[in-house]
UniProtKB/TrEMBL annotation:
Family in the record: Belongs to the myo-inositol oxygenase family.
Binding site for substrate: 63, 117-119, 158, 173-174, 250-251
This protein's UniProt keywords: Cytoplasm, Iron, Metal-binding, Oxidoreductase
Upper classification of the organism: Eukaryota, Fungi, Dikarya, Ascomycota, Saccharomycotina
Name of the featured protein: Inositol oxygenase
Superkingdom of origin: Eukaryota
Residues that, per the record, bind Fe cation: 130, 154-155, 225, 250, 283
C-alpha cells in the first residue's frame, strides 16, 4: 500500500490507472474510525427528526485542520494569499467570455474520477466517489429528487481544474467573501496576512465594498468550483433556489458552520442558510461511508439529470 500511483505534478494530484491503493487506505481509515467510535463515546452528529444514514457519525472525526497533513496547510496558504479582488474579477471575465467544453453532465462527472482534492483532510477518494456518496446518502434519507441531484453535482465544478485553473487553489477548498475583511472564522486565518487585499484601505474593512445586510447574492465569493457550478446550474438547469444555494455556498464554512458574516446577510439568506446546513451533513459526513459502483447507479442518475437539465449537452 502506498501512494505510488498518485502522480504529484504541477497539475496537482492526478489519480492514474486504478485507485485500488487509495481504496484500501480508505477502507483502513473507515475501520479505524469505527473502532475509535466504539472506544471513545464522543460528539455524535445531531439527529434530524427521523432516522438518517448519517446517525452515529462522529463530528470530531472530520475537519480537524490542526492535525491536517502538510498538503492541506500548504494548499490554504496559497489559496488565502492568491484569492484577491483582482484575481476574482479576472476569473469572472474569463468565465463569461468563453465556453470551455460542451458535454453531458454524466461525462463531466466521469472526469472527476481523475481528481483528488488537496484541500480536503477527510477523503483521499476521487471526487466521483465523493459525489456518489453524497447523493446516495441524501437518497437513502428519502430527501427530494432535486436534492439528490445536488448531492451528485455539487462538486462538479471541480472539472474547472482540467480547463483553465492556475492550480487547485482556485478550484477547491473552503470559500470566503472577497472585497471585505477576512475573518478569524476561516480556517488558517493567519494565511490571509500574505493577501494584498488584507492591507487594502477598503477591502480590509469589515463591510468593505458591501452595504450591511445587502444579501449574499451581491457578495463576491472566492472563485472556485462552487461559484462556477452555481452559474452553470443557474443558467442551464431548472433547479430551485435552495438547490442553487446549496451549490453556491456549500464550501462557505465560515458562514454556514462558524456563524460568521451575518452582517452581509439578507432576510432571505436565512432560509438559504437552513437549506445549506441540511445539505452540509450529507456532504461532510458521507465521506466515511462506502464506495459505490458507478455503472450500477448510472441508470438512476441519468434519469435524474435529465429531469432537471433540459439540454443534453451542457456548456461548461
Ligand atoms: O465543499 C468542500 C469543503 O469546503 C471542503 O472543505 C473542501 O476541502 C472541498 O474542496 C470542498 O469541496
Ligand atoms: Fe465542494
Amino acid at each position: 500500500m502506498g501512494l505510488g500511483k498518485i502522480i504529484h505534478s504541477d497539475k496537482g494530484h492526478l489519480l492514474e490507472l486504478i485507485d485500488e491503493d487509495v481504496q484500501s487506505v480508505n477502507v483502513i481509515k473507515t475501520k479505524l474510525r469505527e473502532q475509535s467510535k466504539e472506544a471513545v463515546p464522543s460528539k455524535k452528529r445531531k439527529k434530524n427528526d427521523g432516522k438518517s444514514v448519517l446517525d452515529g457519525m462522529n463530528e470530531e472525526d472530520f475537519r480537524q485542520y490542526n492535525q491536517a497533513k502538510d498538503r492541506v496547510r500548504e494548499f490554504y496558504k496559497e489559496q488565502h494569499e492568491k484569492q484577491t479582488m483582482a484575481y476574482n474579477l479576472q476569473a469572472r471575465i474569463n468565465f463569461k467570455t468563453k465556453v470551455r467544453a460542451r458535454m453531458t453532465v454524466w461525462d463531466a462527472l466521469c472526469e472527476l474520477s481523475k481528481l483528488i482534492d488537496e484541500s480536503d483532510p477527510d477523503t483521499e477518494l476521487s471526487q466521483i466517489d465523493h459525489a456518489l456518496q453524497t447523493a446516495e446518502a441524501i437518497r437513502s434519507d428519502g430527501k427530494p429528487r432535486w436534492m439528490q441531484l445536488v448531492g451528485l453535482i455539487h462538486d462538479l465544478g471541480k472539472i474547472l481544474y482540467f480547463f483553465e485553473s492556475e492550480g487547485q487553489w482556485d478550484v477547491v477548498g473552503d470559500t470566503f467573501p472577497i472585497g471585505c475583511g477576512f475573518v478569524k472564522e476561516n480556517i488558517f486565518p493567519e494565511f490571509f496576512q500574505g493577501n494584498p487585499d488584507n492591507s487594502h484601505p477598503i477591502y480590509s474593512t469589515k463591510l468593505g465594498i458591501y452595504e450591511e445586510n445587502s444579501g449574499l447574492k451581491s457578495v463576491m465569493i472566492s472563485w472556485g468550483h462552487d461559484e462556477y457550478m452555481y452559474y452553470v446550474a443557474k443558467n442551464q438547469s431548472t433547479l430551485n433556489e435552495q438547490a442553487l444555494a446549496m451549490i453556491r455556498y456549500h464550501s462557505f464554512y465560515p458562514w454556514h458552520r462558524e456563524g460568521a458574516y451575518r452582517y452581509l446577510m439578507s432576510e432571505n439568506d436565512y432560509k438559504m442558510l437552513e437549506a445549506v446546513q441540511d445539505f452540509n451533513q450529507y456532504d461532510l459526513y458521507s465521506k466515511g461511508l462506502q464506495r459505490y459502483d458507478l455503472e450500477k447507479l448510472k441508470p438512476y442518475y441519468l434519469e435524474l439529470i435529465e429531469e432537471f437539465f433540459p439540454q443534453k449537452l451542457i456548456e461548461f
